[in-house]
Amino acid sequence: MNQATRIPRGEARRRILDAALNVIRAQGYSATSVDDLCKAAGVTKGAFFHHFASKEELGVAAAQHWSDMTGGLFAGADYHRHADPLDRVLGYIDFRRDILAGEVSEFTCLVGTMVQEIYDTHPDLRAACNRTIASHVATLVEDIRQAREMHAPDADWSAESLAWHTQAVLQGAFILAKAKGGAAIAADSVRHLRRYVEMLFAEAPAE
Amino acid sequence: MNQATRIPRGEARRRILDAALNVIRAQGYSATSVDDLCKAAGVTKGAFFHHFASKEELGVAAAQHWSDMTGGLFAGADYHRHADPLDRVLGYIDFRRDILAGEVSEFTCLVGTMVQEIYDTHPDLRAACNRTIASHVATLVEDIRQAREMHAPDADWSAESLAWHTQAVLQGAFILAKAKGGAAIAADSVRHLRRYVEMLFAEAPAE
DNA sequence: TAAAAAATACCAACCAGTCGGTATGTTGTA
DNA sequence: TACAACATACCGACTGGTTGGTATTTTTTA
């Protein structure tokens, strides 16, 4: 009967992955059933298990899909245009703050949500989430390293550890936003993060 | 047959709550079934639903129980002995860092884990988690306010926002620890937080 | 027409929650 | 102080519905 709404052949997998991004961010991984995903994607269960051997495998693929989507978003953002690497780092932080708008489920992180629930019960999915976070961290490290060499070469912290710290602040900010029911508290935390980075690179040279 | 292992009358409720703290932190809220909780607590399903009208109501009670347990832990810690409020704030941060040891599920936060999953689907439980975090934040605000007045009265941030920021860092650090499978990365982030607080209160007066 | 892609129908295990009933107090009263 | 009346705590089999996953059939396209 609903021929008009039939989905084009070959698109089921992508539609399931796109649906997973939204549904899992709103409901969590465990509370999201395969049927929920099929309904949101507009496909049948048969199509689902044709493309994914299990729910966990979908989760792993969704983590990679999230990595691809957000990777494109950040790669295309224009904070990269700054000549000074510190401006690129601060531009990244500002970009993250600007994103904090609208519904909570729209700006929070898929892999942060998933790994919170499944880290001890689904090793492969945990590893996939870790890969996604680590690959995003890797895109920050080079700018931070350059900024450190230029502005704070003797600092007692590593570029890697600061890059991971930015992710800790963001992930924690998402949790507070979920608890309070709004983005404002998250933006406050990102502003503290910006101030911290400014101070790290503004310190007077050793006297 | 197992008369010896029968649990004393009146202890079922407490045992369920204690079990919930551990099981939910390890498996997440949604993935934890009522039967899981009953098994871990050594009680029957009948006892469970005698004390809690629903799984969500158990979650709400567990958030309060967590608040009571951790509230006692922090109230009894000896960073409160410092005369300078800044030392109390830094002592709190060090205390949080020292706690980061052992199994991930033993140092992570119950309400952070729960609210991540259920913020959009279980309003009462979300509110309970928010109350727990807010009440912990409240225990920090007074020390931060005093430290601010003493060391940085003209700062362009509020005591409340810094207190919430500490929780963002901690919650985010837990997520990274879950993703990476160890406490080390979390301790790194808490060290960044300490450095930030030190710098906030060490700034030279306006020139 | 062969093979991939998707739909349909179905299963056994499991889920949150219910129910009738028992064991163990606690309270009122003579 | 004895005992009836009642309340609380607990038990575990059971229910309707849902779960992740499978087996089979139909459709599409190369």
How would you describe what is shown here?
Two copies of one chain form a homodimer. Chain A is an all-alpha fold. Chain A is 73% helix and 0% strand. Chain A is built from ten helices and no strands. In chain A, helix 8 (123-151) crosses helix 9 (159-180). Chain A is elongated and about 55 Å long. The interface between A and B is large, with 51 and 51 residues.
Total helical elements of chain A: 10
Distance between the termini of chain A: 79 Å
Low-confidence stretches of chain A: 1-6
What name does CATH use for the topology of chain A?
A: Tetracycline Repressor, domain 2
Overall pLDDT score of chain A: 92
Structural class of chain A: mainly alpha
Number of strands of chain A: 0
List keywords for this structure.
DNA-binding, mainly alpha, 10 helices, homodimer, Tetracycline Repressor, domain 2
Helices and strands, with pairings:
Two copies of one chain form a homodimer.
Chain A: H1 12-27, H2 34-41, H3 45-51, H4 55-76, H5 85-99, H6 104-107, H7 110-118, H8 123-151, H9 159-180, H10 184-202
The structure holds a DNA duplex (30 and 30 nucleotides).
Task: Characterize this entry briefly.
With 207 residues, the first copy, chain A, is mainly alpha-helical.
